[in-house]
């Protein structure tokens, strides 16, 4: 249910909302669900995202951003959103983080900077800026029959999806978004005091 029907719910709900508001993007939005993420590191077959990335690379497709939702429905009280910081994906990270802060009730938790992982990795490997959105509390039912719908927090999941919807609308509407790849994050100020005794200062 959480891994990863919650991500699939985000895909369908984002598509539903964008259709319902009759949004007209300046860029094409493509919704893709990948199979077999856990097979990514197998030598015997390709995962869905690996195959997709190979096709995109061979066709020299112009993809400016990949947004991935993976396990976004489990929460035990900490309303936080985990957002990746993949090398070379600064604008995507900053955009998603800013949307989360501005339009949701979630606290931001940025992962440590890293290379792409999970279904982001194959696209990140071919140079596509990527952002990975995930819950921050580890689901104890992960990869087991205990990963059930009864453990899902639907209000929390809806807040996570708001970040995806806002990010997709921003990326697909701002034709010149890549002209400023180091978009200043809304969650950073010009000055820092450490240790910081203030909230949002």
Characterization of the model:
This protein has 201 residues and is of the alpha/beta class. 33% of the residues lie in helices and 12% in strands. The chain is built from five helices and four strands; from the N terminus they run H-H-E-E-H-E-H-E-H. The chain has helices at 5-20, 48-58, 90-103, 120-125, 154-173, and strands at 66-69, 80-86, 107-114, 130-134. Strands 1-4-2-3 form a four-stranded mixed β-sheet. Helix 1 packs across helix 5. The longest helix has 20 residues, at 154-173. The chain starts with a helix and ends in a 28-residue tail after the last helix. Mean pLDDT is 85; it is low at 179-184 and 186-201.
List its salient traits.
201 residues, alpha/beta, 5 helices, 33% helix
Which SSEs are present, and which pair or pack?
Layout: H1 5-20, H2 48-58, E1 66-69, E2 80-86, H3 90-103, E3 107-114, H4 120-125, E4 130-134, H5 154-173
Parallel strand pairs: 1-4, 2-3
Antiparallel strand pairs: 2-4
Helix pairs in contact: 1-5, 3-5
